[in-house]
Amino acid sequence: MAHNGIELTKEDITTLAVEGIVNAANNSLLGGGGVDGAIHRAAGPELLAECQKLGGCPTGEARITKGYKLPATWVIHTVGPVWHGGTQGEPELLAHCYRNCFYLVREYSIMSIAFPAISTGVYGYPKDEAARIAVREARRYLAENENPAAILFVCFNDATRLAYQHALTTS
Fold this sequence. Notes:
This protein is an alpha/beta fold. It is built from five helices and seven strands. It is globular and about 40 Å long. The two termini are 16 Å apart.
């Protein structure tokens, strides 16, 4: 379902034929669980080798690598905040994840980008709040750029999809 350049889907992000995918990474960028582990497995060992050269990534920032064996040309790695109740800057850090990813989308002229629900897995960020921030930042990017990327939010499960659907229709 499309909402002015923003779409929702429930698919495996590692199989999408888009120009770039976003990896919800950890600070080391060396792979982990969830979507991070799946992206590393699908991309092959070359991704890990390139990530080792990056020296990690602070929370809220983003780094870009090639996609290697993935259908996507690029992988943008961003480190979302761990949820501690919302009082330790989590909303700002999550917004920075999206802004820094969109900065790289613009810099590398990426025309289609797929995002997982950053921080909503083991990092425990509430899905509804995370979806509102993601949708707000995506809309801001689309409003400020002449050649907007097609933005795809890849929802791991029905609860995540419902949170994004709600954010798209109420904000």
